[in-house]
Amino acid sequence: MMDKADGPSLRSGFLASAAADPDGAALVVRGVRLSYGELETTSRRWAAAITGRLGRPAQRVGVYAYRSAVSYAGTLAAMMSGAAFVPLNPTFPAEKTASMIAQADLDAIIVDKLCSEQLANTLPAGLSPLLLTPELDNPQFPGVAAPILDRAALDNTAPLAALPPIITEDVAYLLFTSGSTGLPKGVPVTHGNARHFVDVMRERYAITRDDRFSQTFDQTFDLSVFDLFLAWHSGACVYSMATVDLLAPAGFINKNGITIWFSVPSVPAQMRKRKRLTPNLMPGLRWSLFCGEPLPRASAAEWQAAAPNSVVENLYGPTELTIACLVYRWDDATSPALCRHDVVPIGRPLPGLGAMLIDEELRPVAEGAEGELCVSGPQTTPGYWKDPQRTAERFVTLPVSPVESRRFYRTGDRVGRLDCGEYVFLGRTDHQIKVLGHRVELGEVEAALRADPRVTEAIGIGWPVEQGSAQGIVAFVSGAELDVENLLRLARQALPPWAVPQRIVIKDEMPLNANGKIDRRALAATL
Amino acid sequence: MQELEPQLRQMMVELCALQPDFNRTADFYLDLAVPSVKAMELLMELEERFSVSVPDDDFVEARSLERLSGMMQGLLEQN
Questions:
Q1: pTM for this one?
Q2: Which tens digits make up the pLDDT trace of A358-368?
Q3: What angle do CA B6, B10, B13 make, to 5 degrees?
């Protein structure tokens, strides 16, 4: 294993910062400040425990933790052990987490106190990855046969001195997104993919060790990689937020001297609704960044007024293209005229990436026409985890000139290109939608409802849609002797909270379109 | 008029998909892992249903059913 040479990775940037200033603040979580040196020592300790027990570098390590010191140190520990980190989330249904654990084939799982309460229900039968419980002494998990390293065992382990080398082709993290079959699909992202993004963005935002990053995203959302690793590659500090702090972000920003804000656009949207987004509210911000769903024009404009010393940018990108791949810089004077459906443009590809709009036959569309956005370059990930068929559908090689072809990822997003060259988001090409920034496959919602055998047909619709983004889901069902309460209970068991229908409407008969398919538009029109 | 705390409990169960018998002193966000989007919805729902303006700083502190109930009781009495 030691014959490969350690290359640039998400890990090497953190280590360089830790070597330069071990006493510098790397993280503030739940009010506790952790220095680079402390995080490095802890993560090397846990890595030593993992590799010591395995007798080899790890391949994949789960981090089953939630906005706790363990979730951040665990992410680093996975990489110190040579492994990809695989974030797990206690707000997901147990079945989904179990599927993720089974698919990821984990060598070890690092578990915090909150998630330890769910562990016995989520660890698939027959699997026994090594369990690390740094917050618990001698824990008991009924029915779990896996070996456990508890707090004392970890505290008594010497930090790993010689780290297993990482090369750019190695997987840095494995995330799971909604799949149409109901099974979460894995997206492995390499160190090379992630380092391209981090290196480009560090330069774009001229980040220094004095910067303070917000950390708004759950770690199962790849946008969290921006916060952690842009900061840690620059010697800066990350401020972990409790979810409720997102309601009053100005208080959090001003109290902690945050300079770089990054969140979903729902945050300014809810502030606007509540009339809290007032001028000069957050004068200390340098950068105001949004990603994850369409950014409404009014949110960009009002946030700009509230954070007048910051530059507002709209980032765009699916997990398969590594965090974000297009970016647009808001300008009060020129941007409003470029918005489509009151949504801010998604801009242009990052340096080094290529974009193309294609039709259903995978041919480039005519100048000025809309099409499906495809992106090529160093952030295009290797393909879906253990799923060559789906990989072949979504990752395609397309000619970019008579003599050259490149590998592209098809985003499934309908996009247009303005005369000035900026791209604009128009909608989804399929039924995969975003609800408040979370990707939801409507087929997954429908499958959950059809788990009740009395349901014959189930259709989910994103509704209401405000400025291109669904605020929730309404489901239509047909069948005999249906019980809405029971259906909601099934949905809550199978789906993450944002995918649970807010309303279930019983229909005697579903409207059909000319092709004999259920007419979703007609259903939506009844709302 | 129904008692306030059971109403709020029901609201949390519906909005945040919590178990109906969740602990009244548990921290919604750290112990029960209520996601951010749900916290926003909860605040908006509270303001709409009870026709009150909830100060952000109070809401951010009212992280358990017990404290939420106490805070809302105070706001409703002020009205």
A1: 0.84
A2: 998 899 999 99
A3: 140
